[in-house]
Amino acid sequence: MAAIYSGIYQKLKSAKTSWEDKLKLARFAWISHQCILPNKEQVLLDWVTQALVSNYKKKHELEDEVVEKLWAYLDDVIRSKRLQDLLKSGKTVGLSFSVAEIINKRLSDAYSEKTQQNIGTVLSCSSGILSTPSLSVIYTAKCELLVDLLSKLSKLACQQLASDDAVGSQLFSVLQLTFAQYLLIQRQQTNPNRVFGQVTSHLLQPCLLLRHLLTVRRWTQADDNHVCQHLSREIRSQIETLLQAGLFQPELFSSYKEELLSEQEKKKTLLLPVNTVQTKLGSDLCEPALHGAVVADSVSLLYKLFLDSYCKAENHLVCFHMLSRLFGCLRLSKLQEGGRSDTLFPVDWSMELLALEQLLNLVLSNDIYNVASDRIRHKEVQFGFYRKLAQMLLTHSQASIPAWFRCLKLLLSLNHLIVEPDLDDLVSSAWIDAEASEPRTKKPQETLINTIFQIYSKLRQFPRLFEEVLTVICRPAVDELRPSVFSAGLTAKLREYLLELPPNQILDILCLVVEKCQTLIIPAIEGSIDMALKLMSVCSVLHAFLFNMRSLDDVTPSPVVLRTQHLMANIQKGITQPLMELLQAPRSEEEKSELWLRKTSDAALLLLYTWVEVDSLFGVSCSKYVSPTAETAVAEPAARHWGISAFLPGVKDQCWRRVMELASSFASTSKYCLELLTLQKMKMILMQTEADLQALQHAAAFILESGRSAMSRGESEPWDGDISAITELSYPTAHWHLVMSNLAILLPYISLKDVQYIANVLLEMLMLAEAQEAATDQESSISIAKISLSLIHSSLLPEMRVLHCAFLTHLIHQFAMVLPTATRDSVDLPLQQLSVTNIPWHEEILASCKTVDPLEVSSENKVQKGELSLSWKTLEKVAQCIVLLAKNGCPVILKERQLQRCLGLLEIVSLLKLDSFLPSDCTRCFLVLLSLLVNTRASVSCSRLLLLKVLSTCFHLLRCLQAGRNSSSVLKVLHASDVLEAVMTSQLTACKFFTDVLTVPVWTQYVQEVQEFLENFLHMIIERRQSVKINLEKFMSFLVSRRPDAGAVKSIDWKNWNPAAEQLLLTAFTTLCHVVTLHIQQLPEKKLHSADVLCALLEPVVLQMVRTVEHGIQSNTPNQPLPVAYIPSVTTLLRADLSHPVKKDWQKEPSKFLKRPRVKLYQEFYSQILKELPCAGNNLQFLQLALQFLSVFCSVPELYPEKETAVIVVFAIKKLLSGPAITTQVIRSMEMELTDVLVQVLGNCSAEEFYAIMRLVLQGLEVKNIWQQKAKEVLSAVTLTKLLLSCPLSGDKGKAFWFASPQIITALVLQTKEACQDPALISIIVIPILETVAALLRQGEGILVNPHHVSLAFSILLIVPLDHLKTEDYYGVFLGVHEVLFSIVQCHPKVLFKAAPSFLNSFHRLVVSVIHEGRQKGDRGNRDEFEMILKCAHLVERMYTYIAAEMEDFTVFSAFIVAHYVTELQKVTLHPAVKAHLTEGIYHILDLCIERDIKFLSASLPAGVRQVFKDLYNDYNHYHKAKKQGEEKYTA
What we know:
single chain; 2 strands; two-stranded parallel sheet; mainly alpha
């Protein structure tokens, strides 16, 4: 027996023993069972703690290394499993309070020394002590020590957050644990004054600083992820809880009330909580640089916590005084006392205003300010405070800070009278003179102005508001260039209020505007920039009102119409005519460039356009309205020619030309308004019975010419839609917007040259669109790129055929420009010929409609009936050229940069609606794409992936063209076989580049595109009967000739051959075979001769396919999987062989029609597939193709190799489904293919084979599988069960399955019970089981006659967990449970009534779950998660509705269903969208409730729940019942 060591204690206490030896002895003593000491654990703990205490109390000063080792030893002991086991067994082991003291001292030293390098062990000790109840007593029994620890840890955390070092998790984990311990102790304290003292003396300042630093910290990747995402949020929450419980306990309210309501302190000894808190927020809170920010961040928190604790109706005055005291802590309060605003920097202003906004938000949301109560009872004390606040904000305007606007908006929401005395200052500083150009300030500014509109609209004081607006506008401008009065957003808001206002109020405002303009501005405008700016602002107000007010109509009262007429006449005579006279005066070139003249021109033409547009509208919509131009328009001869007199009688054409000349020299509002006036003129001409064609053409040409120079410069910026704010850079955008928006009006009257100009600009803008869109992030603004893209995406462009044709011509020209310089000038190249401008590509468009301009189609271009037009002759010539170049092998070599440009142009082509092309355009586009494919090659240095992408895009676009109604027009100029040969020749040649990229996804996509193009083209040949036999025969011969002879393996052909070419050729063989086979199968019996001809044609293709596949398989490396490309080929071969025998009685022995060598090939392939299937993992492409082959193979049982049966196939599938890489998502992706295989297998197998298959399934469902951790075995069996339910089972097979169904259901119940214990198995087993049970119950309608078997399903539903699940798992489980319930409700209603309690319990779990998950979560919510919750709520609504509509027997339970619902609803606040679904559903259940049920619910529900029910029932009566009765009234 080993010796027992003794004397260790003496050695530990001995001064002669070195500390190194002592530590070794202590460690040995702790872990060794051979060392026996009385109460050994306590002795060793006392020894190490005594050593540390002596060191820190300076009795024995030790070396730093020894001290660190002592701390490490203490930490190891505290965290050791031995100590934990001893404590669990009930043994008492403790620490002395001095340990807590030295830990606190050690942390204090670390904070003072500003180094946290060596405190990891001390923190670990603290964590171990606090997390062990019997040890944490040293802190919990002496609360002062815990408070001190929390204070020290908070300061250390602040120090770490303030530094640039990465934040680690250890300190914050200990801090979070300490907060939790303190909060536990705090709740147990009985003396609120003591707690208040502890918090304010030691914790308030570090906690507020820590919370601020955690909030503003910019987390980096170097910081610990757990701290960023979890601990920081948790600690902030704990700080709020600590402060609320420490500072604002109910027992302290009397002290707060006495201090806040008394004018002076009555007792010096009285507890002054507010004063104490204010003092702690003083200068010693933190370092000066952070002080202002921390205070600003803290006051709103403290006020929120105060309101949460004390805010009741009777305490509102106390709450207000607390607000004023806390506001006094902000630096803003000094400004009220006359302080200087320049002491605050913009950053400080932002923080202070944000704090003020939060305070005012709390006042508003808690209804602290009652206007009547404040005025009657409290001498307007609150009003006075808010009034001073408003004055301070308006005196020190901060229009660049969003919070400033929000603060003013909140003050207006409290009471508009707070701001009304300073309404002019508000309008000036927050609206007219505010420079809020940034989007972040624009939105709050518009919200503030919207609030002003709303208030004055409700008060019916809109004229009063706009009187102030005009006063501000007419003041001298603060800045030389004022911002626009009405932005696009404000104009939309104004429109809403103008529609509600009485017409006379709007006219009052307009008359006031006109009067101000006539008396103050017009007389003094000449030469004055200030007056010109004022005029612009006033005209923009007139424009906004006249354009957005309600139009006159025949029901408008006559006085309003007369007043409007007078107003319009006044505008015309008093403003527009004087301005026109001013503008038409002769001026020098220098004078014309002056700013005042430019602004005057802008304002005058904006007002003129507004007047003309509104006058026309009133004339059309109101028969009582008489235009001021009516008297003179008839008399003026110029009106007949649509001169200016038609709009402004009295203005001569010569004068108007001078005005136009002046306005056209400014690329701004005036030029844009000229275009709008011209467009208005076109509309007025078109409204006449006889349109003046020449005037329309001149007008359309003027509009296009007006912006041509600006568009050609290529410089533009986004435009917000505000006419008065058009600048030189935003003018091109505004002009292009006008042209594109009115193309339907302009296009019939512009020349072909102008159409080509529009097409050219449109294409240029699209080519620049990507770069421009990246540069502009403003969603609301309009850019040239957005306008162009919207036209391309619209359905209007294909209707504008001439423009469509011209756009295609320019696009082809761009393709031609991509070609190398050496070949670009060659007129013989297809792309050059297709983009020639002197060929009338548009002639078939003009031939089908009446031409506008007789010069457009010259007589020499007219063609005789039956003769091909010039454009078609050119297309035919180009087509022959493409084929010839392809045969001669003379491609154009493109570099990578040119390929990139090609790809960009192809993406523009993809934006067009290719299926809407006219025949000639369809043919042109086809030839362009064909030429790119067959007449161009990439240089050797090009990226292979880029080349593949270009080729794939070309094939994709060709397919899109083939989907159009004019796709066969291509065959007018090309033989189908020539197209196919040219394409395949070029692609087989290009394949030499692709040997090293056969495994990348782009190659797979390319092969797929080639296959789909060939398939579509071959279908077109067959369906449209385009020389089917000749074309197919030629293409087949070509394909056969392209493959090297299998016998000459060493020939030159084979040396040049490569796997990429082989795969592509095999794809072509397969596609051809598939299309022809499909056509043969669809032929009627009368056309058996055609089938024989096609079969004979197909034979050489089939032989070549067999050789290619065999060669591929032979050249494949042994033990390597089959190349995926071969699987569809063999499947197609097999289908082709099975389609050959179309003679009588072929179905009896189909295998006889298969040639023996080919049967051997299929069998070998089948064996290889079965071998590889279980190892395929999640290779979805292989799995889908392999299963498609098996479904065809298994349709002919005679093909099975000897001694193999259908059971082998099912076994392979079961093995596949139980593979480690198989997930439920993979199974879902190949479910259709699996079903097809099983349908064929089970349809052709014998009864004995089916019994064997059932045994396989039942073995997989045995519960021992899950005990043995074989979850995938269970998944495979459950999936097979579900698949069997999708197969038509009849006779003995059906009987066998349903005979085993009770055993299946029981097995599924047991599996669910076991799987629910492991959350990881929810998605793997539980969700598939729910889907299978639902399918079993649906298919078992009328078959499962034993109610007990159906009731077993409820056992599953009551076990399945619905909480603490991942988002994706939650929806799967919820849907599964719902579908099982719905299957029972629909298919087994008799069972349901007997098992009503189980049904209600199961359904109630869904309701409880969706209510819990659908509660409002603030900012924590996730959009995808919310969409999922909405789907779940919709499912619950569906169930409620079905129960109410179909299940009359359930009427007796309706009251209980409602009671369940309202009981849960009372516990949470639901998200409105979720609540809408649930409420709609429960209304249908309330339809079932009779009066007795309602009385029962009203009497029996608890008080809080009863109120919820009452609100629900009132809403039901108000909304649902009334609507239902209304519908029933009109129901037959």
